[in-house]
Design goal:
alpha+beta, about 110 residues, single chain, Glutaredoxin
Amino acid sequence: MNPVHEMIDSEVKGNDVLLFMKGTPAFPQCGFSGQVVQILDYLGVPYKGVNVLENMEIREGVKAYSSWPTIPQLYVKGEFIGGCDIVREMFQAGELQEMLTEKGIETSKQSA
């Protein structure tokens, strides 16, 4: 396993909720990353954001890691959930909140 893949794997497995994104949770640098940040913040979910713009190897490596071509990418308890559209659709349907609860992730809002 290459070092970038190991770092990504370590982050995914070491954080209950992890978002690979463009920018930071406090300052998203693309609209799609910003939408996922808004959803997670609205739900009050503690999460870690990894800024892929700081490291091109991570930016490309995370796409290979998940076999998903775009950023942002959301992981919960080591499982790849999806990008912006999937997260937004799950949130609107109440599925994201259910999945977080099932995985033992506390949210400040249990229903949309």
